[in-house]
């Protein structure tokens, strides 16, 4: 992917190149020049902007959809009991 | 270090991570009773090898590694699931974008506003094979870096990236199917090339 033009500005990229960079872009793992090219593409391409926004939203929603297990008191007690057999001293 | 100090350190660093380990185990096993057994075994192994734990290392990441190994022992067949994501992670990104375009044309573009998202995502994640789902849990849920996830899974960073991208694409496909099953649109969900 060409990422800068001869003046050093972000190069124009096509939808396919932007789409290939989707998850690397969302994870912030692209080189700066490539990131700028993708940024300017989705600023000006309604379809790609929609893809990227959807993917971003799904990724943002995933952590809250899989909540922590809470204190898991019963399991903790079970674990502590099994550890005591190994010599663990509960405080 | 006395035994009391050793156990106090174990409490502070290892037992404190219990909710994260439970979440990780449940995502692996999809069976709460099995997950609890995995977690108990994980802690037993962690305690037995606590003396070898390097001070300053990431205890949570260490526990994830143990937990995954325990899980794979329980599910020998799962450990042999062929990872077909390959190394071309960019293709997964491209496919996800193309499939989203198809979904929009099917009227699914705003599905996240029209479904109960949390159960939909949980259901969709359950449909993602474990080898890919684990990458999502480590990176997207637990917030681990690609490098840390690679350490837990014992694979190169590039493999984590391709598994993660495959998982996200499968997750997106499953969300589209969930929306169709929920009657949000009448047209079938967009076909997912290489979804299996």
**Would you tell me which CATH topology of the largest domain in chain B applies?**
Arc Repressor Mutant, subunit A
Tell how many strands the DSSP assignment of chain A holds.
0
Tertiary shape of chain B = elongated
Largest sheet of chain B: none
Rounded to an integer in angstroms, the radius of gyration calculated over CA atoms of chain B is 19 Å
Q: Find the biggest chain interface.
A: A-B, 44 and 54 residues
> How many domains of chain B, as an integer?
2
Instruction: Provide the succession of SSEs of chain A.
Output: HHHHH
- The first-to-last residue Cα distance of chain B is 51 Å
Number of helices of chain B: 9
Shape of chain A: elongated
CATH class of the largest domain in chain B: Mainly Alpha
Q: Total number of β-strand segments of chain B?
A: 0
How is this structure best described in words?
- The complex is a heterodimer of chains A (91) and B (196).
- Chain A has 91 residues and is mainly alpha-helical.
- Chain A has one domain (15-84).
- Helix content of chain A is 62%, strand content 0%.
- Chain A contains five helices and no strands.
- In chain A, α3 (32-44) packs across α4 (46-65).
- Chain A is elongated, with a radius of gyration of 23 Å.
- The longest helix of chain B is centred in the C-terminal third of the chain and has 25 residues, at 157-181.
- In chain B, 46% of the residues are buried.
- Chains A and B meet through α1, α2, α4 and α5 of A and α1, α2, α3, α5 and α6 of B.
Short description, anyone?
Chain A is mainly alpha-helical.
């Amino acid at each position: 992917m060409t990422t800068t033009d001869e003046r050093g500005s972000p190069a124009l990229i096509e939808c396919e190149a932007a789409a290939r960079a989707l998850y690397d872009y969302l994870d912030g793992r692209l080189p700066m020049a490539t990131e700028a090219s993708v940024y300017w593409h989705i600023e000006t391409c309604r379809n790609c902007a929609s893809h990227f926004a959807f993917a971003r939203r799904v990724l943002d929603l995933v952590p809250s959809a899989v909540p922590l297990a809470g204190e898991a008191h019963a399991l903790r007690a079970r674990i502590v009991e099994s550890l005591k057999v190994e010599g663990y001293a509960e405080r | 270090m006395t035994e009391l100090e050793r156990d106090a350190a174990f409490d502070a660093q290892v037992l404190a991570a219990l909710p994260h380990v439970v979440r990780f185990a449940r995502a692996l096993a999809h069976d709460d009773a099995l997950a609890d057994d995995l977690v108990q075994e994980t802690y037993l192994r962690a305690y037995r090898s606590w003396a070898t734990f390097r001070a300053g290392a990431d205890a949570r990441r260490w526990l994830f590694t143990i937990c995954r190994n325990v899980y794979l022992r329980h599910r020998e067949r799962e450990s042999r699931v062929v990872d077909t994501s390959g190394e071309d992670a960019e293709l997964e990104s491209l496919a996800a974008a193309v499939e989203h375009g198809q979904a929009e044309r099917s009227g699914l573009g705003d599905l996240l506003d029209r479904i109960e998202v949390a159960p939909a995502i949980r259901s969709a994640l359950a449909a993602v094979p474990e080898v890919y789902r684990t990458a999502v849990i480590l990176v997207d849920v637990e917030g681990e870096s690609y490098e840390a996830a690679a350490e837990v899974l014992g694979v190169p960073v590039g493999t984590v990236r391709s598994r993660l991208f495959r998982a996200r694409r499968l997750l997106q496909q499953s969300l589209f199917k969930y929306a169709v099953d929920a009657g949000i649109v009448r047209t079938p969900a967009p076909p997912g090339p290489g979804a299996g």
